[in-house]
Amino acid sequence: MIPVSTDYVNIIANGGHYEWRIVNYNKTIDADLKRGSLTLTLFEQASIGNVLASQLDFEYYDDGVALNTSYPLVVSFRAVGDSSTSEWLQKGSFRIDTIEQSPYSDVVKVTAFDDLLKANVPWMKSGTFAPTTDLAIVRSIASDIGVTINASTLSEFNNPIQITEAPSIGENGTTSLEMLSYIGIMHGGNWIIDSNGKLKLIKLFSEQGFQPHIANVGDAVEDFDASPVEYVVGVCIWNSENHYFRVPNVTDEEWERLSGRIIDAKCYIGASQELAQTLYDTFSGKAYHPYTTSKAWVDLKYELGDGITIKDVSSVICNQTINLTALGSCSLEAKSRDIVTSHYPVPTPVERQIARQEAKTQAYIN
Question: Do the beta carbons of residue 33 and residue 77 sit within 8 Å?
Fold first, then answer.
C-alpha cells in the first residue's frame, strides 16, 4: 500500500476524484492527456516465480515538445476535493517502447514498460560461474537494469542462500529474468517493480488479509464473478532435468486426485525435496479465491499483492488495469487453476512472457 496523508484519506472518503500526470524529463502531460491505462500484473494465477513487467499505454495531444526516450515516464496521481488537493503519489516508472504519431491529427500514442523488461537479457554474459548468493545475484541484476531494491525485500535476504552451481544454460542461455524467477521460487514469491520504481519481492499470501493492506470495494463493481475458493494442497518443483520434487509424497494416481491448488514451478537452481517441503509447509491450506470484474472502483493507494474484498469475496490484487481517469476505475482478475499433469511441467508465466516480448525487448534495450 502506498503511504498517504490524512488529506488524501479525507478527500477520497468525501467523494473526491483523481488527477493524473505523466512526467518525462522537462515535459509534463496532464490536461493534454487524452486517455491512458496502467496494466499491472503480479501473477496470472496464484503461483510463484513470476517476473511480469507492467505496461503503460496512453494518448496525448501533441504540444510540440517531444518525449525524451532516454528518461522514464513517471506516472503520478492525487486526490482532488471541492476545495483542496492531496500530495502527488507515484504509481509507477516506465521506459518508452513505442511512440506513434497519428498522420491525421495531433494525437500521439505511447506504449511503455517498467524496468523488469530489461531483465530479459543473458545473465552470464562472459566468464565462468563462481559460487555466490541469491542476494548478490539480485543486487547485480538490479544494478544491470538500473533500479534499486525495495527495503522490505532486502530484509527477506537477511540469511542469503548459497548458490554453488550455475543453472543449466541450454541453447539460448539463462536470462536475468529467469534467474529472478528461480530466486523468487526459492523465497516463495513474485517480483515486481513497485510504485517508486524499485525491485520488490512479494511473497505469495504474505500481505493478503492483513490490515491495512485490504482494499474494501464492497458493491462498487460491475460484471463481477467469482469461482470457488481453492486451497493449496500440493507443491511440485521441477529441476533442469525435468525431475520433480513434490509434497505430499503420494502416488501419481493420488496426486491427480488432489482437489485444490497445486503450486507448480520450474526452479533450475536449488530445486530439492527440502525446498518443496518448505514451500508446502508455508502454503498448505492457504486459500485463494479466483474472481473477475470488468469494472471496479478501488482506492488507488492499494498496490499489487494487497488484499481485496469485493462483495463477500476476499482475495488479492494480482491483475489490474487502471484507467487514467477522474474516477480511476479498473478491471480486476484472479484466474482459476490451470490443469497441470504430473509428468510434464507447463510453460511458466516467465517463459510465456519471454516468448511474447522477445522482439519488444530487443528494440527496448537498443
Answer: no
Single pTM value for the model: 0.87
DSSP 267: -
Report the C-alpha gap between 138 and 219 in whole angstroms.
41
pLDDT in tens, 338-352: 543 333 344 445 554
8 A C-beta contact, residue 76 and residue 89 = yes
Q: Are strands 214-218 and 73-80 parallel, antiparallel or unpaired?
A: unpaired
pLDDT one-digit tens code per residue, 237-277 = 999 888 999 999 999 999 999 988 999 999 988 899 999 99
Rounded Cα–Cα distance for residues 108 and 127 (Å): 44
Cα distance between residue 27 and residue 40, in whole Å:
24
Residue matched to cell numbers 504474505: 206
Q: What angle do CA 335, 340, 344 make, to 5 degrees?
A: 140
Cα separation of 230 and 50, whole Å? 19
Angle, CA of 275, 156 and 165, to the nearest 5°: 45
**Collapsing DSSP states into helix, strand and coil, what is residue 92?**
strand
Task: Tell me: pLDDT of 166 over 80.
Answer: no
Q: What secondary structure, in 3-state letters, does 21-53 show?
A: EEEECCEEECCCEEEEEEEEECCCECCCCCECC
